[in-house]
Structures are given as structure tokens and as C-alpha cells.
Amino acid sequence: MNPVRAFIALEIPQLIQESIEKQTTRLRLELGNDLVRWVPTHNMHLTLKFLGDVASPHMEFIKSMLNQIAETHTGFDLQIGSIGSFPNLKRPRVIWVGIYAPAGLAPLQKSIEERTVRLGYEKEERPFSPHLTLGRVRQRLTAQETQKISNTLSTIQLGKIGTARVNSLHLYQSDLNSEGSIYTKLFSTSLR
């Protein structure tokens, strides 16, 4: 069987997704689709580990690992609000909504990172920065277009969007097509 492009993530409730969409409407309208490729709201999730291509036999190892991790971590609440960009506001590549991380998030993500590295997956070199991707800035923009994005982002204020309860971990498949990515939930396990 063909390998599956996969990642491990936390699900964002539909009400929070709808609130994000409502509060970012002005931003989406001002920047449009020519400058930014927007993530469909229903695709928003908090990625804990991107695995890349996973061979079918490895899926059972990953599911087992997620069950073991879930047994040692309890659920928590995520506070969602604020807006920003990576790598920074002057050179935006990814536009995001921020997450105020509770104490339980970092150990959960670290546990997943360590265990997947032991399974042979590549270690993430960048520090974990919890966020929800709103959109990806298109490549080959002019300096004026990049400046427009920076200026617009600096004028947008997002308050607290809401709180999302996290009770489970999810393994997703990501299929790329011309419209963007399609995510399919392959497996879920409940946190303790």
C-alpha cells in the first residue's frame, strides 16, 4: 500500500472555528485571495507533530503510541485569540491565530515529539509555537504587496475568541489537491 501523509493534532470545535471565521472576515476581505491562500475554517486544527509519509504498517505503531501517551496526559482548555505571522510581521509567510497554552500542552507535545523521533520520524528543530494557521502568504509578491499584508495585520485586533476543551488526540491523513489540503481523521484516542 502507498504511504499516507499524516500528522498528529488537536481538534478545534466547530463553534470556535465559526467564531474565528467571523472575527477574521475583515482581514480576509482586505487581503483577498490574490495575496493569501486562506485555510478553510473547517480545516483548522492545532498540529502537534507533522509526520510526513507514513508506511501503512507503521500506522499501528503510531496508534499504539498515541494510546500510551493519552493514558499519561489529562485534558485541558485552550484559550484562543490574537493574530500574528511567521516569521515576523515585516516578512509574513504564515498568518495565524494565537493560542494561550495551558501547562498541559507543552508536555503533551514534547512527549509526542520524543516518541515519534524514537520511531524514526524527523525531529522538529523549531521550537513548538502553538497556533492555528489562517492562511499562507503567496510567493513572489512585490514589496508593496508584502507591505500591504504587514500593514493590514498591524491594524487588526482580535480579542479572546473562545475556549476550546481538549480531551483527545487525533491522527489525520492529509491529501493535497489543487484546492488545498483535505484532512481525514484516521484515529482518535481520549486523554486521561
Fold topology:
Layout: E1 4-11, H1 14-23, H2 25-35, E2 36-38, E3 45-54, H3 56-71, E4 76-87, E5 92-100, H4 105-118, E6 131-137, H5 143-155, E7 160-166, E8 168-177, E9 180-190
Antiparallel strand pairs: 1-3, 1-8, 2-6, 4-5, 4-7, 5-6, 8-9
Helix pairs in contact: 2-5, 3-4
Walk me through the structure.
- This protein is an alpha+beta fold.
- The chain has one domain: Cyclic Phosphodiesterase, Chain: A, CATH 3.90.1140.10.
- 33% of the residues lie in helices and 40% in strands.
- The chain has five helices and nine strands, in the order βααββαββαβαβββ.
- A five-stranded antiparallel beta sheet has the order 2-6-5-4-7.
- It is globular.
- The protein starts with a strand and ends with a strand.
Q: How is this structure best summarized?
A:
Helix content is 33%, strand content 40%. It is of the alpha+beta class. The chain has a 5-stranded antiparallel β-sheet. A 4-stranded antiparallel β-sheet has the order 3-1-8-9.
